[in-house]
Design brief:
alpha+beta; 2 domains; five-stranded mixed beta sheet; globular; 19 strands; single chain; 10 helices; 29% strand; Fumarylacetoacetate hydrolase, domain 2; twelve-stranded mixed beta sheet
């Protein structure tokens, strides 16, 4: 399944799945229909709210039971036809031009992995980056910086002159756990999603003088995530995916997930000492081709008007425009003295 979070109106957020014809199926209503039609359950809505809640983190908190229920809902809705409605007549199918697709999930914790692709480490060293990109390190993302597909990355020109991109594959956890082995890691993987790790490089260099960095990657809108979560059953080998990032249609990053130095089960097992919650997200590191480590960084750093497209095989394309602070807020930023 391709799982999406979408809005049908202000403050009306639902979760759905992509149907073969490109429409979105409201999974909560579709499961109520399944329970009504197939299970003949008189408490269809109550059970649907428990098993397939209209919240993505809630769905993953239900683990395999909820994901299996969502699959049953999707299958039944498609079999019922395009005009199908819920037991009380509510809509089940939506065209994408009728809704707004949001970031697929708001995790409790977002684990970053850095330096996992050797090619990225080597390009940093070749470019003379101020600090070594050590193989693989972890830090946390600001989850409030998450934005969804087609939502703008806001360029804070009063803070940075070096806005960069980083294409990454991310993992969504389907159950809580801690202190497990790499052999057990597959039991925790619920799905995969595309992540663009937007980074202010000039801020990053200053932060790294202290040995840590966070602000450079956690500024508002610096965490594009989406366009949907593809469940693990549709990607049997996450280390066999082509990866490409384009800016204004021109390829900037092009690589393959097989080039990870440390594979996903080992990463998940190692970080499990910090404890996971269902719905947590974990990135796996970026590939070579970032602007900062190119021959001409200034010409490649992002600027207002740019369109960034992140594509990972079997998942899709995450597209985000870059806009100025003034475009976003209708005023120039206040600059501290």
């Amino acid at each position: 399944m391709k799982l999406v979070t979408f809005q049908t109106g202000p403050n009306q957020t639902r979760i759905g799945a992509l149907a073969p014809d490109g429409r979105i199926v409201d999974l909560n209503s579709a499961y109520a229909l399944y329970l009504h039609d197939v299970e003949r359950d008189p408490a269809a809505y109550k059970v649907a709210d428990a098993r397939v809640p209209a919240d993505m983190r809630g769905l993953f908190e239900g683990g395999d039971q909820s994901l299996d229920a969502a699959r049953a809902a999707l299958k039944h809705a498609i079999a019922s036809g395009a005009r199908a409605t819920g037991p009380w007549g509510e809509r089940i199918f939506y065209r994408t031009d009728e809704i707004k697709i949001k970031a697929p999930i708001a995790p409790k914790k977002f684990f970053h992995t850095a330096g996992n692709f050797r090619e990225h480490r080597e390009e940093a060293q070749k470019a003379g980056f101020s600090h070594p990109v050590l193989p693989w390190i972890v830090f946390f993302q600001n989850v409030d910086a998450i934005i969804g597909p087609d939502e703008p990355v806001i360029y804070p020109e009063h803070l940075t002159e070096e806005l960069d991109y980083e294409l990454e594959l991310a993992v969504v956890l389907k159950k809580a756990g801690r202190h497990f082995s790499a052999a057990d890691a597959a039991d925790y993987i619920g799905g995969y999603v595309i992540f663009n790790d937007i980074t202010a490089r000039d801020i990053q260099r200053q932060e790294m003088k202290s040995g840590v960095f966070s602000f450079c990657k956690g500024i508002d809108s610096f965490c594009p995530l989406g366009p949907w979560i593809v469940t693990a059953d549709e990607i049997p080998d996450p280390h066999n995916l082509a990866m490409e990032l384009r800016v204004n249609g021109k390829v900037r990053q092009q690589s393959h997930s097989k080039k990870m130095a440390v594979k996903i089960p080992e990463i998940l097992a190692h970080y499990s000492a910090m404890g996971y919650s269902a719905g947590d997200v974990l990135s796996t590191g970026t590939v070579s081709g970032v602007a900062a480590f190119s021959d001409d960084p200034k010409s490649l750093f992002l600027k207002p008007g740019d369109i960034v497209e992140c594509e990972i095989e079997r998942i899709g394309i995450l597209r985000n425009p870059v806009i100025s602070w003034e475009q976003a807020y209708g005023k120039k930023p206040a600059v501290a003295n």
